[in-house]
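Re: duplicated header lines in exported structure tokens

Our pipeline writes sequence and tokens for each protein into one text file. With two proteins the header for the second block appears twice in some exports. Here is an export where it did not happen, for reference. First protein block:
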Amino acid sequence: MKTMHTILIAFGLLALSINLPAQNPLGVNARVAPGYDLSVATDTICTAEFSVSPDSLTSYPYNYHFKDLSTGNINSWSWDFGDGKTSSEQNPSHQYDNPGTYNICLTVTDVNNTSGCSDQACQQVTTLTYYSLGGLVYAGEYPLNNPVITGDTGVASLYRIVNDQIVFVEDNYFQDYGYYWFGYLIPGEYMVKVGLTEGSPSFSKYFTTYWGDEISWTKADLLDVSATSQYEAEIHLSPVQVMSAGQGIIRGYVNFEQGNVYSMPPLTQTSVLLMDPDHKPLRFTRPNTSGYFEFSGLPYDTYLITADATGKPASTLTVTLSDGSPLVEGLNLTVFGSNTSMIPEKTDQAIDFIRIFPNPVNDNLTASVYSGISSPVVVKILDTAGKNHYLRYVQFEKGFMHISIPVPDLPKGIYVLIIQPQGNYMPVTAKFIR
């Protein structure tokens, strides 16, 4: 389950347009109500039609969105929601007080009577069954504030898989008993992550951690609440690593990309991770309101820096601190603004390119890769005659990888980048222009 199907996600990374005006149309048992005639119109100049979608991304039960799909010269809409409530909006939303089956009717007309338009359509809708999701959050050996009150506050963030996209639903703050809870969830698959709020006494001691006890969303598990509630989805917060004190400082900025447009990242849902060269997380920090971050007091060493913004891949940068270079600043981390649909579907035994940028390449080439395996790989650059211009061995881990290759000495021309995993795996290749 650890590959999240992997989220299985096929990160259509440059697609983030989650157009969910009705928050994910679902099957809601919509059908013609018994005794209703879809064409009780006095004419055929216009046709009444509508769709019904449950609100999947809030905690309001029995809340539905109605979308007018009628055709013709229409300027008046009259909705009867079947519970005694009505609306004259074109695309209304309505929350029922109780579960049940309701007959919804839409009547459309031309009130100016220039076309003589009048028609009615009806559907029958049975409200969904809702579920709950919750669990204990452990900070060390015991749950948060249980049995010893530490004064820490936890925040649980809930995400739902909607049309192969990871979509934020809501935050839930909790203290008592170390237990988080979400209610009135429609059937589906969910992801939960829990962290401590800034100002909590233990804030700097634990990473934000996903269900499945993973620090990165690309490795997190999914919770299935399509058939039953989940009350024991416990999470063990991962502790930060104890590091010796040093003089090193790393500073940078997080960019949030939406296609070719840059904007601020979702700061409340983003962590910047400091890792060792083997991708083991060491520390974390949060960007400030302007997107800037800093790690200080670091021992001289080589580190990897990346960002974790749930559902969005991010670049990974390599930084080396030394006596001659104790301060590295001006780093630019990119959180790519698209969701899941760009991760290949079959990644359990494959490495796939996402993109090479820039292309044409100037002095440095960056290859963004999704790996469905943990494996040593050989990275090569060949020219069109087959001559090898670059050779490097890299350890890949499951998830997104970003390889930076200096190419200022490459002659102008067309080249092929080759990534060959160890074992019986096919290499992946991509062309670029220098």
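Second protein block, exported in the same file:
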Amino acid sequence: MKRLAITALVLLLLKILLTTGIVAAFWAPDRSVVELAPRWAQPPSTFLAVDGLQTHVRDEGPRDDAAPIVLLHGTSASLHTWDGWTQQLARERRVVRVDLPGFGLTGPRPDADYHVARYVEFVTALLDTLGIEHCVLAGNSFGGWVAWETALAHPTRVRALVLVDAAGYPLESQSVPIGFRIARVPLLSGLARSVLPRSLIESSLRNTYGDPSRITPALVDRYYELTLREGNRAALAQRFAAGRSAAEPGRIRDLQLPTLILWGGKDRLIPPRYAEQFHRDIAGSQLVMFPELGHVPQEEDPAATVAAVYAFLQSTRSSVAASTSPRAPNSAGRITSGG
């Protein structure tokens, strides 16, 4: 069965190449940060030395926030996935977002170690570098996994948690984006380091959105060009290999902090039943489901999803100990409390 699946993937990739033109037309060599930065690292972007990496960071909003909001993106994404949230939150809160190692403009780790524990060390080093003593930590997909692991590692430092279609449990997906499937097969991932049709990126995005009509050419451009950042394609395959045996989901029950769980009802990569599992396992958590959104709801509909975050921050303001408590606009999601 495994051999048949690999063969099917090879044929699918060849079909994409042959139906959209000759292979040479899709030759896509790595691009340097110098080439990519003018478009994708405009102000307020900066590069900071964090854990041995020149790390792409955006740090916005008031400096007197006692518990800044730190945002962690998912696999193959970048800090830009939080643009909509940051536009709203940074009016009253300090918001820090970062390209995690192996993705965006930060690029690959020299040691090629993409285990979750190393990402927790990276996030800790980021907080130290920025002088952040306490924070609200939010993460989407793989970034959500890193977020809850960081909260367990530093229970007094992380004051609240926002999990957006988060990973961490043994996963049975309904559908996996083709880009992720290719990265898991050595033969195909090796080919993809040199040949990358833009249509492959678009297909993967369509798979992750609840409403594919929301996908714009500019969005495809962003994912495509940042995938080409030198070293990112090799890092993706290494990240998947590292992540297969690292999760200890039983530890999720040890989380004892205010937690908001946001989920897209049309998420086929990490289906909504995992939202319910997080909700059961984290005592006192709040769950907000967005029935029409997919795997990256913060990107697909930032206005509706950030409204739920505002409401959560207001309801937990004393335990989060933030310096400000923004007014919560109406949320379009279905809310469940308890856990």
